[in-house]
Input
Amino acid sequence: MELNGRGRGVVTLLLVLGAVVFGMVVAGSLNLSMPALGSPATAPANLPSGEDGPQRLAGAPAAIPSFADLAEVVTPAVVQVLSTTIEEASDELPQDIFDFFRQRPPGRDGEPREFRQDGGGSGFIVSPDGWIVTNNHVVDGATTVRVRLAEREYEAAVRGVDDLTDIALLKVELDRPLPYLELGDSSSLRVGEWVMVIGSPLALESSVTVGVVSAKGRALVGLNADNSFDNFIQTDAAINRGNSGGPLVNTQGEVIGIATAMNFGAENIGFAIPVDTLRHVLPQLRDEGRVQRGYLGVAIENLDYQDAQAWGLESTNGALVNSVTEGTPAAKAGLQPGDIILEVGDHEVERTRDLIDEVSSYRPGTELDLELWRNGKRVSKTVTLEERTPTVADVPEPEETGEESFEWLGIEVEDITEELRRSVRLPRDLQGVLISDVHASSPLYDEGVRPGFVISDVNGAKIGSVADLEAELEQFESGDYVRLYVQIPAPTGLVSRFAIVRVP
Output
């Protein structure tokens, strides 16, 4: 049968409609149809804000939040911290990697009479009456501290510092309530969640970066002499110099971390102190200006499957005691290497972090019951906690006598005497030279070497004195590579690694 022109047109129309319907069915079955981001159907409601600052939302948004709304609510409670340190003139530049500006005023004779260091970072308000949280390294040693809020600067008093967690608490006195941020819960934070960092990187106020939680529970060897309390949140939200002390917030506008450090050798790898750590130390910082922590005196590590099998345990829960320091609460209570701590107080110990956090949350003098696994049996012990003593980070400035300077290497070193060994608590069998200073221009500075480290080996040659080190370094020529074996004393034992530099 032959179709006329009109009939052929009808058939063509029906075929086109059929193809469209078929395509829609296939696309739907393959889940190819996606709503546009930020469309009215998926965009969350604006975050609420009260007179006293951001208010907590009832639940997390189901879709990607409006970061513009989040920034608008959070930013008014974020401050820029400005610190000024004035010291006697020195030939050396400051060696704080976090500061964003340095100034050396000349004297009449062209030489500097005093040294002024202008630095700073970020912070955030945690109460309407002017309490502000920042990093300790932002204000450490500062002569004066100011905060910039709403384009005005205010004098701030440093009311509490804790170098072990790198947290400091400031106070400003104003005659009006301030906007503030609520503290969230970092323990429930999940890898992959959206987060935002707000601060003043490179003195650029109110800068906002966005990313996700990349990992949790990171320890950064070399950042602090004692990394027992390292438990950083890793994020790809950009953290730069000047961000230190600023808030890491979730999509509800709650603080879940304090921006603290970044990895210079990579892109978008930053680290933040969990807000749960802040919760633990905040009351003591506010009331006493410092943090007293219980101290046990053991070196511990996590169990793996093989360890659990070897000790006859059904799970990997617990903290394996590798060593017990003589004269400490653990030694006095009879703990032994090979013990596995299963419980402390009323809390189960799943990982070493649980034991560290629980013990340090108690004041010195507190009695704690420990449940141990020893030789296939459960054993109970009671310990009386003592105060954690200063670490290598608190080494007093060494006397000028006995030091040696190596110009191209940019370090100051000294022989390890018995008096020095006792004062900084170096192990008796640790041989080498103590680094008392690392210049800002030193190639070792970029290698993460800091004062308090011990050089025990140079290119395979053992170092027992400053003279040994000087003799070894004199053998190298321009362009040679130098391998220094450095050891970092810590309460949990020595951390060892190589630092490699090239002779200029």
Q: What stands out?
A: The longest strand covers residues 114-125.
